[in-house]
Model the fold of this input.
Amino acid sequence: MAFEPKIVGFLCNWCSYTGADLAGVSRIKSAPNMRIIRTMCSGRVDPAFILKAFQLGADGVVVMGCHLGDCHYQEGNYKTIRRIPFLKKLIEQFGIDPRRLRLEWVSASEGDRFAEVVNEFTQEMRTLGPLKLPVHELMGKNGERAKHAVHE
Amino acid sequence: MAKPRLALYWAASCGGCEIAVLDVQEKILDIANAFDIVFWPVAMDFKYDDVRRMDDKSIDICLFNGAIRNSENNEIAELLRKKSKVLVAFGSCSMEGGIPGLANLTTKDDILKFVYKDSPSTVSTNGGTYPQTHTKMPEGEIEIPEMWDTVKSLDQVVDVEYYIPGCPPQPEQIWNVVSYILSGQPLPPSGAILGAGEKSCCDECTRTKSEKKLKQFYRPFEIQAKPDECLLEQGIVCMGPATRDGCGALCPKAGMPCRGCYGPPPNVSDQGAKMISALSSVIDAHEADEIDRILNQIADPIGTFYRFSLAHSLLRRVDKHETH
Ligand code: SF4
Ligand code: SF4
Ligand code: SF4
Ligand code: FES
Done:
């Protein structure tokens, strides 16, 4: 069977999630590879969420938020435009192709743009192939131990 | 009543944690009086076989420092787990891989190749002589432990009751934990972090913070830092926001940025992720190019953010396949 990438999409509630919804009700077709996680703002996407997604087997991660200037919380997405390039540098040092992390602005009215991003990104991940990380094997061998990885 | 039985062990360790125990100074005599020390290779003559002969769960408390880096570390971790009621990951190496965990930036093969072949001070004949786990000698076969590719924390190989962070843990904190145990009060729930606080290093730091934004980062040697202001706000990457309190903010007090040895604060799973959040909030830029220019001033993000916690971070080690 051909490789189908697993993609995690963090979508802000006010713009991009609504945009995804619009794509749905307008019956715009898009690749079914993305698992959507709704966050209140793109600025709420803790960098740890993204690393965790890769740890748990995502082949790619997309963060979508309101266009600059449109964030429901004014400044949230300005945080995001600094975090994502920073994270790209970090994951690259970890040995993950930085193209596996993407930031896109999708407004509530851009259902078509949403579908385009999903299709494009899915295609790119198909070309990059599955992401295999040492942590998958380390945790898989000793799944029980993974629980201890966080000191609450 | 019989004295509680105490064991101390070092795995992949620098010895600093052992010194930290001795640094409780004259109280070491109280420790020696209060406990029956049944195993402490650095200070007293015990053999592994002495431990193997003990009954299971006959050690009341085992303070285990050092990371799990080779088959011997792992074997003794499993042995001490079996023999101990309470196993404590003592110090950064044991709790989260520590400095030895930085080997997870590379591979065993690359390390051996450098040390036994390529390093400028190595005279290599016949393409280098590599250590072997088994060597035949006239007297018989010699076996040495096998080095691992990936360094692990103690809790990645066995169950651990408690953690005492720090590289090394501060002697006052060690004494706090020991005297608490001796007081006979009920032990905290399993999984607890002892000898540290519930906040971040910044909360203990006395430098003044003024919510300044930054366009420029410096490495500590590039700038004469002002003595009273927050180092991060002066552009020095200080791990304070991503580090648990408990040391008394020793490093910023001495003019050096915190390097993160007390591990992540409560509810933070990954020091690097936390630092990316913290630094992203202080960077003063809205344009992609400007952001990029500022980010490029931060040298070696993994080595800086995960200096002590790489082996215990979300991704645990660098991968050498995809981008190399
Ligand atoms: S935690 Fe620090 S002091 Fe303790 S063994 Fe590791 S490197 Fe040495
Ligand atoms: S960032 Fe460093 S210098 Fe600033 S308050 Fe925190 S610990 Fe102190
Ligand atoms: S300031 Fe940071 S690096 Fe220094 S001892 Fe404290 S926790 Fe460790
Ligand atoms: S609410 Fe959409 S990015 Fe902040």
About this structure: The longest strand of chain B covers residues 59-65. The domain at 5-99+151-182 of chain B is CATH 3.40.50.700 (Rossmann fold).
